[in-house]
Amino acid sequence: MSSATNPQDTWKQLAGAAAAELVEEGMVVGLGTGSTASHFVQALAQRIQQGLHITGAVASSQATYTLAADLGIPLTDLDTHPELDIYIDGADEIDPQLCLIKGAGGALLREKILASSARRFVVVADPTKRVEQLGHHYPLPVEVIPLALTPISRKIANLGAQVKLRHAGAAPFITDNHNFILDCTFPQGISDPGALNARLHAIVGLVETGLFIDMAQQVIVGGPDGVQVFQQ
């Protein structure tokens, strides 16, 4: 395990290492995106170097694909293996019902595809990601077709959100799917994630939301007291 620069990074490493222990011989594994998921990918690579054999891993982003390839993890895709045994990823916010906000890294569409293709979806996190209600610490990201940017922005604003186009420097941030991301802040938080998700999905041109509802079976939290596991 690499040396951590701060306690939060140590906690992420703890969660990633614990999640890597869930991977069993012969599994097809989904690899998440982001800082905590990258600790899992590194821990999985270590287990493979120590003799674990997996059938293959599917990456949720180009960044994760590159990291996994560099670490010698055998990669595959959903065409070859349309069902994953397990998908392990981080989250930006986690509520008591294990509903999530994801997408701060911009990979929410591919992450949700992998999560929905997995028999088991496990979230890795540090304690700062646990919240009583979604939407107070992170905006809700939604991926949209560029052509529909302005109409969609107006419709989401009508739902009570402050809507901001995500940028990378001076230019709009472009997802791996060549779409835009709108970061949507709901000043009072998100009281009913399921209802909001349904209303957003009714907007034509909106590709996917960062609300992951009834998808995670388990959350592994690394913290100052070690590892805690929360079940759905």
UniProtKB/TrEMBL annotation:
<dbReference type="InterPro" id="IPR037171">
    <property type="entry name" value="NagB/RpiA_transferase-like"/>
</dbReference>
<feature type="binding site">
    <location>
        <begin position="102"/>
        <end position="105"/>
    </location>
    <ligand>
        <name>substrate</name>
    </ligand>
</feature>
<feature type="active site" description="Proton acceptor">
    <location>
        <position position="111"/>
    </location>
</feature>
<dbReference type="Pfam" id="PF06026">
    <property type="entry name" value="Rib_5-P_isom_A"/>
</dbReference>
<protein>
    <recommendedName>
        <fullName>Ribose-5-phosphate isomerase A</fullName>
        <ecNumber>5.3.1.6</ecNumber>
    </recommendedName>
</protein>
<dbReference type="GO" id="GO:0004751">
    <property type="term" value="F:ribose-5-phosphate isomerase activity"/>
</dbReference>
<feature type="binding site">
    <location>
        <begin position="33"/>
        <end position="36"/>
    </location>
    <ligand>
        <name>substrate</name>
    </ligand>
</feature>
<dbReference type="InterPro" id="IPR020672">
    <property type="entry name" value="Ribose5P_isomerase_typA_subgr"/>
</dbReference>
<feature type="binding site">
    <location>
        <position position="129"/>
    </location>
    <ligand>
        <name>substrate</name>
    </ligand>
</feature>
<dbReference type="GO" id="GO:0009052">
    <property type="term" value="P:pentose-phosphate shunt, non-oxidative branch"/>
</dbReference>
<keyword id="KW-0413">Isomerase</keyword>
<dbReference type="GO" id="GO:0006014">
    <property type="term" value="P:D-ribose metabolic process"/>
</dbReference>
<dbReference type="GO" id="GO:0005829">
    <property type="term" value="C:cytosol"/>
</dbReference>
<dbReference type="InterPro" id="IPR004788">
    <property type="entry name" value="Ribose5P_isomerase_type_A"/>
</dbReference>
<comment type="pathway">
    <text>Carbohydrate degradation; pentose phosphate pathway; D-ribose 5-phosphate from D-ribulose 5-phosphate (non-oxidative stage): step 1/1.</text>
</comment>
<comment type="function">
    <text>Catalyzes the reversible conversion of ribose-5-phosphate to ribulose 5-phosphate.</text>
</comment>
<feature type="binding site">
    <location>
        <begin position="89"/>
        <end position="92"/>
    </location>
    <ligand>
        <name>substrate</name>
    </ligand>
</feature>
<comment type="similarity">
    <text>Belongs to the ribose 5-phosphate isomerase family.</text>
</comment>
<comment type="subunit">
    <text>Homodimer.</text>
</comment>
